[in-house]
Amino acid sequence: MSLKPERSGRSGVALATVAGLALMAGAFSLRGLAHAEEPGRRLPEAAVTAKEIGLRTATLAGGCFWGVQGVFQHVRGVRQAVSGYAGGDAADARYSAVSTGGTGHAEAVRVTYDPAVIRYDELLRIFFSVALDPTQVNRQGPDSGPQYRSAIFPADAEQAAVAKAYIAQLDAVHAYAKPIATRIEPGATFYPAEGYHQDFMASHPNHPYIAANDAPKLRDLQALFPERTTPEPTLVGGRPPA
């Protein structure tokens, strides 16, 4: 059972009854004990850095895209963070298909950033430090299946090389108790998710799933990387949440 409720693409609203929310909260308390994520930590800077000019994009997957998007919307130098799907075909790039786990897609976030403010390797440092537990395979927290895998979808050979080097660096110093399981998957196309998934963490801060799984990631970002954090999120909708 996932804590993420059924959603309606037609209405654009997450559907959940009061009783269902109570059941989901109870499920988290049980499953969270069995599948606890590694806590956030300020990982070392990358030894291999990116050399980029002009606005660039980074596509990252780390479980439910709500939390990954919410983290990067608060990172200084990020111009936009969009929830979506990567790793599969265009025909399957919709939540109803991806949620089955059989499309090849992962829930992912495309981050548009200014490398004059924050480099690609610095984004990866934040990603591995606070946005996910990179040692989990085909799951994050209460969500399981290949659609929740940890993956990096590099835009070019330089991004792929920087990502590979940083993962090797972290494993060499035993940054985590277990080896990093994050996959590097070049050549993938990113497809934006349905509108009701965008800005979900900012718009629904009290949602049970957000409070249990994603709010701690944002608190880790603010505590571990205060110099990289912006107080207000950069929203896809272009306006503050209601």
Structural overview:
It is a single chain. Residues 5-36 have low confidence and may be disordered. The protein has a single domain, classed as Peptide methionine sulphoxide reductase MsrA (Peptide Methionine Sulfoxide Reductase, Chain A), CATH 3.30.1060.10. It has 7 helices and 10 strands. A 6-stranded mixed sheet has the order 9-8-3-5-4-10, with helices on one face. It is an alpha+beta fold and 242 residues long. A hairpin with a 4-residue loop joins strand 1 and strand 2 (13-14). Has an important function as a repair enzyme for proteins that have been inactivated by oxidation. Catalyzes the reversible oxidation-reduction of methionine sulfoxide in proteins to methionine.
Q: Keywords for this structure?
A:
7 helices; alpha+beta; single chain; 10 strands; 242 residues; Peptide Methionine Sulfoxide Reductase, Chain A; globular
- Biggest β-sheet: count, sense, barrel? 6 strands, mixed
Low-confidence residue ranges: 5-36
Shape: globular
Q: What's the N-to-C terminus distance?
A: 30 Å
CATH architecture, by name, is 2-Layer Sandwich
Round the Cα radius of gyration to an integer and report it: 17 Å
CATH superfamily: Peptide methionine sulphoxide reductase MsrA
Number of helix segments?
A: 7
Tally of domains: 1
The chain-level structural class is alpha+beta
Which fold name fills CATH's third level, the topology? Peptide Methionine Sulfoxide Reductase, Chain A
Helicity level: 25-40%
Strand content: 15-25%
State mean pLDDT (0 to 100 scale).
Answer: 87
**Biggest sheet, spatial arrangement of strands:** 9-8-3-5-4-10
SSE sequence, one letter per element: EEHEHEHEHEEEHEEHH
CATH class group: Alpha Beta
The tally of strands reads 10
EC number: 1.8.4.11
Catalytic activity: L-methionyl-[protein] + [thioredoxin]-disulfide + H2O = L-methionyl-(S)-S-oxide-[protein] + [thioredoxin]-dithiol; [thioredoxin]-disulfide + L-methionine + H2O = L-methionine (S)-S-oxide + [thioredoxin]-dithiol
Family: Belongs to the MsrA Met sulfoxide reductase family.
Function: Has an important function as a repair enzyme for proteins that have been inactivated by oxidation. Catalyzes the reversible oxidation-reduction of methionine sulfoxide in proteins to methionine.
